[in-house]
Amino acid sequence: MRGSHHHHHHGSVEYTPWLIAGLGNPGNKYYGTRHNVGFEMVDRIAAEEGITMNTIQSKSLLGIGSIGEVPVLVVKPQSYMNYSGEAIGPLAAYYQVPLRHILLIYDDTSLPNGVLRLQKKGGHGRHNGLQNVIEHLDGRREFPRLSIGIGSPPGKMDPRAFLLQKFSSEERVQIDTALEQGVDAVRTLVLKGFSGSTERFNLVQ
To answer: Which helix (H) or strand (E) holds 102?
Structure first.
């Protein structure tokens, strides 16, 4: 519920645009796989905020809209995971999005399934999509990221095979809950910035 009177004077909302990008692989065969939860989160944000993703630009499917009064671009690179930076680098430049407003959303095997972590900045955490984005942002890492835990491969399972698996029904329930919480986390981040309110999104199921 947004109030009708906005308090512009104390500068709580910054109207510089955000680029919210989910990492994943395009195409039906990757739909619903562990490595594609970044795409799912972006789809969910777009749906909740009424943003239609119907524009193709810079090897990406994107939608232009807003969260509250803050302009946002929601982006799903279509260039395959390992080349995500080729899509995101040029978009950030074209729409003049500052590094601190590029939010990357991706799967994280170092977190338990369905656990979210929101960070101001960080390394690449061995994530190949994230690594490529950092390369295409001139090696800079000071952009926020929301990672979604997908658990880690059991036993001796090949990590790549694990990433391309679908979730079990129990895991799926945890992921759906995480996606709901993630929408709230992103909305709070865009409207209020990093603060005490975003720290609670380091959520445990």
So the answer is: strand 102-108
Q: CA-to-CA distance for 14 and 110, rounded, in angstroms? A: 32
Could you say which of 35, 101, 127, 136 is catalytic? 35
pLDDT at 52 over 90: yes
Measure Cα distances from 50 to 41, 68, 69, 174 in Å: 14, 11, 13, 24
Token code pair at residue 148: 């979604």
pLDDT of residue 126: 75
CA angle 202, 127, 165 (to 5 degrees): 90
Cβ proximity of 32 and 166 under 8 Å: yes
Which tokens is 171 given? 């895991």
Assess whether 35 carries a catalytic annotation: yes
Neighbouring C-beta atoms of residue 50, cutoff 10 Å: 9
Q: Beta strand pairing status for 60-67 and 70-77?
A: antiparallel
Token digits of residue 193: 């910035």
